[in-house]
UniProtKB/TrEMBL annotation:
Pathway: Cell wall biogenesis; peptidoglycan biosynthesis. One of its GO terms (cellular component) is cytoplasm. The lineage of its organism: Bacteria, Pseudomonadati, Bacteroidota, Flavobacteriia, Flavobacteriales. It catalyses: UDP-N-acetyl-alpha-D-muramoyl-L-alanine + D-glutamate + ATP = UDP-N-acetyl-alpha-D-muramoyl-L-alanyl-D-glutamate + ADP + phosphate + H(+). Cell wall formation. Catalyzes the addition of glutamate to the nucleotide precursor UDP-N-acetylmuramoyl-L-alanine (UMA). This is UDP-N-acetylmuramoylalanine--D-glutamate ligase. It is an enzyme of class 6 (ligase). Residues 107-285 form the Mur ligase central domain. It comes from the Bacteria. Residues 308-421 form the Mur ligase C-terminal domain. Its EC number is 6.3.2.9. Its main location: cytoplasm. Keywords: ATP-binding, Cell cycle, Cell division, Cell shape, Cell wall biogenesis/degradation, Cytoplasm, Ligase, Nucleotide-binding, Peptidoglycan synthesis.
Length: 444
């Protein structure tokens, strides 16, 4: 019996353990932290052996294959030891993909991947396909393969998940954009992070498709130097595309092998240029999979978006409150500010991941009337924007930040939470940060 060791007892780890057990592996789950009660219960029910608050090295090194959770860096001593012994260390994506014959639509990028994943899944489902959604979102991919496998999967893939693939190949791959993010995991080298994202196409061939943003310099430069075997279907807001998607007179046009679909951007339920791109990517997939054009149009008109991503919360005294807590990097906040149509009170701050704020200066000059800092250390934000905005306030809690915004914002203006930073200094994660924002707004 082959031995599967799972490092990390979270969603992806426990899902992999369930699938491993079903496929006849001898499974052992090891977590350096504490495994939550919910997951312990599952492991007990499936009679899977586990340990917490330690990795027993002797047991881990007995593995035939190791599934490593995406949160564990490759630089950890135990992972290095496994590699020295040539024991395969893979991600949940690689493991689960080996146990299903489904077709995969894989979506990665620094920003926009969650919206694009949910939108693609929404259209395919409404179009009548039996399709699951997994990866960096929702229930574990491996668990779904074990318990309710489907012929199609839309997978949101982080760079960490792609680092752990060997043979995984999506029939359709989407790369939404690449901007510097998570550089602390890539030796602070942007090129390492870029290469990681492009692993999504490494096993594709001429029968597969690669959908990408042709306006993204980083992507187009990489493609020039590194030929890609699959069929390229770019999308663009600025240039005309022969095979792919582009914008013409406020209409999205998608052309694949002379088959055309046209959709006015005014009908899109999600606002902002970045969402036009997300819609292009999702609609291109749907066109490839022969979803009816009317279904694609209806779905783009009625899709409500992702929680914590430019989410309209409430209008109070004619001031619109918007929750964009999912903006954990500068580029995501750029999109949010770009989508603002009125003077904005901007709530920003948290754990800085080596941010360079210069690209935000033009938008801040044009749209932001006051900045409310929400972080333990706000000095970098104050230094960056001191010359752009007269009114910069520091706060220590979400309630205080929202109350301050309420005092500053006037009729027909907006209050935008778009932190551009990670949340770990004051909150558990960006979801908790967004929920606290919504609660504080509702209490006004």
């Amino acid at each position: 019996m082959k031995k599967l060791v799972v490092l990390g007892g979270g969603e992806s780890g426990v899902g992999t353990a369930i699938l491993g057990k079903k496929e006849g592996f001898d499974v052992f789950v090891s977590d350096k932290g504490v495994i939550t009660e919910k997951y312990k219960e599952v492991l007990r029910n499936f009679e899977i052996e586990w340990e917490e608050q330690k990795h027993t090295e002797a047991k881990v090194l007995e593995a035939d294959v190791v599934m490593k959770s995406p949160g564990i860096p490759d630089t950890v001593a135990l992972v290095k030891r496994l590699r020295e012994r040539e024991i395969p260390v893979i991600s949940e994506i690689e493991f689960a993909a080996n146990h299903t014959s489904a077709m995969f639509i894989g979506i990665t990028g620094s920003n926009g991947k969650t919206t694009t994943t949910m939108l693609t899944h929404h259209i395919l489902k409404q179009g009548g396909l039996n399709v699951n959604m997994a990866g960096n979102i929702g229930d574990s991919f491996a668990k779904q393969v074990a318990e309710n496998d489907a012929p199609y999967y839309v997978l949101e893939l982080s760079s960490f998940q792609l680092d752990g693939i060997k043979d995984f190949v999506p029939h359709i791959a989407i790369l939404t954009n690449i901007t510097p993010d998570h550089l602390d995991r890539y030796d602070y080298k942007f090129e390492n992070y870029i290469a990681s994202k492009f692993r999504i196409v490494m096993n594709q061939n001429e029968d597969d498709y690669f959908i990408y943003d042709a306006d993204d310099e980083v992507i187009t430069q990489y493609i020039k130097k590194n030929p890609i075997r699959s069929r390229l279907l770019p999308f663009s807001l600025t240039k005309k595309i022969e095979n792919g998607a582009y914008l013409e007179d406020n209409n999205i046009k998608i052309i694949i092998d002379n088959n055309e679909i046209i959709m006015p951007t005014t009908d899109l339920s999600l606002k902002g240029n970045h969402n036009v791109k997300n819609a292009m990517a999702a609609a291109t997939v749907s066109q490839l999979l022969k979803i009816r054009k009317t279904t694609i149009r209806e779905c783009l008109e009625n899709f409500h978006g992702v929680e914590h991503r430019l989410e309209s919360v409430l209008k109070i005294n004619n001031v619109q409150y918007i929750n964009d807590s999912k903006a954990t990097n500068v580029n995501a906040t750029f999109y949010a500010l770009d989508a603002m149509k009125s003077a904005t009170v901007w709530i920003v701050g948290g754990v800085d991941k080596g941010n360079d704020y210069t690209e935000l200066f033009p938008l801040v000059n044009e749209k932001v009337k006051a900045i409310i800092c929400l972080g333990v250390d706000n000095s970098k934000i104050i230094n960056a924007f001191g010359n752009c905005v007269d009114n910069i306030v520091e706060t220590q809690s979400m309630k205080e930040a929202v109350n301050m915004a309420y005092k500053i914002a006037e009729r027909n203006e907006s209050v935008l939470l778009s932190p551009a930073c990670a949340s770990f200094d004051l909150f558990k994660n960006y979801e908790e940060r967004g929920r606290q924002f919504k609660e504080a707004v509702r209490e006004l």
